[in-house]
Amino acid sequence: MIKIAPSILAADPVNLERDVRRAAEAGCDWIHVDVMDAHFVPNLAYSPDVVRRLKEITDIPLDVHLMMDRPESLLDEFLKAGASVVTLHAETGNVSGLLEKIHASGAKAGVALKPKTPAQDAMQYIEQADLILAMTVEPGFGGQKLDESVLEKIRALRDAGYKGEIEADGGISEENLQRLMDHGLSVAVMGTALFRNEDMRAAIARMHAFL
Ligand code: DX5
Ligand code: ZN
């Protein structure tokens, strides 16, 4: 069954607890936390303290996506804060040592690729990474249009024998999810399409039924 991970980037930042509880009660599988450093991406979002408090208000696994140039600078803090999954961008350099560090803490380790970064750049991690995140928009902002070229990247990762989770993030909706799944997707990050939906529970239930 596809995992649905609402991105709190699309939640109301002054009503984060309300929106996270809404997503949890609507039956989501993970909560996606888009961490941004205003350097790797032109936006700024979420500190380890936010993850720590979210961990206190929900048992839903926190799927932390570090859109940071120097992920090592705060990795320990995000792990201590209770992240269940931590994903680092392959564009920041060789992340193999950091993936080991994530595993040593008991969390799952992911490698993210921007839309223009080829699947080849993840190949060195396919034995080590529990998850590969194929960004379907240029990272930094929600509400963008899905980049169709990423579908082939997802299929290429599966064709290369990757058996772990493949996650996509950006521009995903009920309308394009089935095609993403047909190419091998197993986790869908959805911000706008879910938080703007007046019946999140019904939408998640419909998508959980996709095969
Ligand atoms: C981009 C962000 C967005 C967000 C989800 O850096 O990662 O992809 O999570 O975006 P939408 O609102 O398109 O689902
Ligand atoms: Zn993300």
Account of the 3D structure:
The chain is α/β, with parallel strands linked by helices and 211 residues long. The chain has a single domain (3-208), classed as Aldolase class I (TIM Barrel), CATH 3.20.20.70. It contains eight helices and nine strands. The chain has helices spanning 16-25, 48-57, 75-81, 96-104, 150-159, 174-182, 192-195, 200-208, and strands at 3-6, 31-37, 44-45, 62-67, 85-89, 108-113, 131-135, 165-169, 187-190. The protein is globular and about 40 Å long. The termini are close together. The structure holds D-xylitol-5-phosphate and zinc ion.
Summarize, please:
With 211 residues, this protein is an alpha/beta fold.
Enter the CATH topology name: TIM Barrel
Ligand identities = D-xylitol-5-phosphate, zinc ion
Please tally the helical runs, counting DSSP H or I stretches of 4 or more residues. Answer: 8
State the strand order across the main sheet: 1-9-8-7-6-5-4-2-3
Secondary-structure class = alpha/beta
What is the level-2 CATH architecture name? Answer: Alpha-Beta Barrel
Query: How many structural domains can be distinguished in the coordinates?
Result: 1
Helix content: 25-40%
Tell me, briefly, the overall form.
globular
Distance between the termini: 7 Å
Number of strands: 9
Average pLDDT number: 97
Q: What is the rounded Rg?
A: 16 Å
Low-confidence stretches at least 5 residues in length (pLDDT < 50)? none
Largest sheet: 9 strands, mixed
Query: SSE order in H/E notation?
Result: EHEEHEHEHEEHEHEHH
